[in-house]
């Protein structure tokens, strides 16, 4: 059985380290983790946290309206490809829409482009490099 709920920044750290920071010196802690309007969501399977994402209010000049940046999106390796990332993102979009969000954007790893494309996210601009992590594109989705 799965459930999705709000979690604390600290709850994301273990999965961030293993799924997103393996072999890197980059910190698993992020600026904005503890801001009042930041939302951390977790998907649990049988009480095991297997998928995480964090949403931080952050505006880019090239988008209009209230914007949240998605950061730290990751599914535990053994649980990838089961639809959990998609479930978490759909729940997040509903929640953020109810908070007045108009755009969700992220710096998407090139290996995850198809995941975001399937959720309706579009690329904005050119590829750029994030040291240690690799090539990224800005991707965004306008919420209804
Ligand atoms: C990207 C990631 C978060 C997706 O989570 P997930 O729970 O596996 O996603 P889902 O099972 O909901 O997959 C949805 C679709 O995206 C596709 N997809 C998932 N991960 C993908 C990847 N790494 N590359 C390409 N496509 C991917 C799947 O093919 C799936 O489509 P399908 O159902 O038609 O086959 C997960 O693979 C992950 O944690 N990757 C490592 C960390 C990472 O790159 N995070 C993103 C940082 S920007």
In short:
By secondary structure, the chain is α+β, with helices and mostly antiparallel strands. 23% of the residues lie in helices and 39% in strands.
The CATH superfamily name is Gcn5-related N-acetyltransferase (GNAT)
Structural class: alpha+beta
H-E order: EHEEEHEHEE
The description of the largest β-sheet is: 7 strands, mixed
Kindly provide the name of the CATH class. Alpha Beta
Total domains, how many?
Answer: 1
Helical fraction equals: 10-25%
Strand order within the widest beta sheet: 1-2-3-4-5-7-6
Number of helical regions:
3
At CATH's second level, what is the architecture?
3-Layer(aba) Sandwich
Radius of gyration: 14 Å
User: What is the CATH T-level topology?
Assistant: Aminopeptidase
Uncertain parts = none
Number of strands: 7
Strand content: 35-45%
Shape: globular
**Mean of pLDDT:** 98
Question: How far is the N terminus from the C terminus?
Answer: 29 Å
